[in-house]
């Protein structure tokens, strides 16, 4: 449903919500400031109070997405019983975020928004989200369950695996495989991450 009014100071959030709805319904190519204004139920000039152009709006959505993702990851890490358990929980939180915010998740990783010289805020927000994972890996190193000389590589491998699972789920492929295996997709994600943990920490005690 279109929002036809907004409180003073809430125009920016209204436009961002409208942009996400437009992406979900018609795809990224449909986005222009004029179309977003129409979707939000505001004047065609209203977006320019907050966004210089289309790229600025998309960059803001990317920043917002990474900040939300970082908060979800931090919460999962804080609630985990051990640093090693946190890695599995972080993957679950990452995949869950992609399912809860599919349009924004896909937008966050668009190549044109990953250029630090053009979109420094989005780049920094992405780094901050990744840092939650890197700190979790560092805690595992400190606990002696992961090797220090492979910490950076393992953090990137963990991210790659979680991102791949999220993408497969959004594309419907993981649901298909889960059904074939007689399990539920969240359980399959958990099992995959635990299997990966066992491969890289063969001497680690069970969580």
Automatic annotation (TrEMBL):
SUPFAM superfamilies: Homeodomain-like, Tetracyclin repressor-like, C-terminal domain. Transmembrane segments: none annotated. GO terms for molecular function: DNA-binding transcription factor activity; transcription cis-regulatory region binding. The keyword Glycoprotein does not apply. Pfam families: TetR_C_33, TetR_N. InterPro entries: Homeodomain-like_sf, HTH-type_TetR-like_transc_reg, HTH_TetR, MT1864/Rv1816-like_C, Tet_transcr_reg_TetR-rel_C_sf. Residues 9-69 form the HTH tetR-type domain. Keywords: DNA-binding, Transcription, Transcription regulation. Residues 32-51 bind DNA. Gene3D superfamilies: Tetracycline Repressor, domain 2. The keyword Transcription regulation applies. This is TetR family transcriptional regulator. It comes from Nocardia mangyaensis.
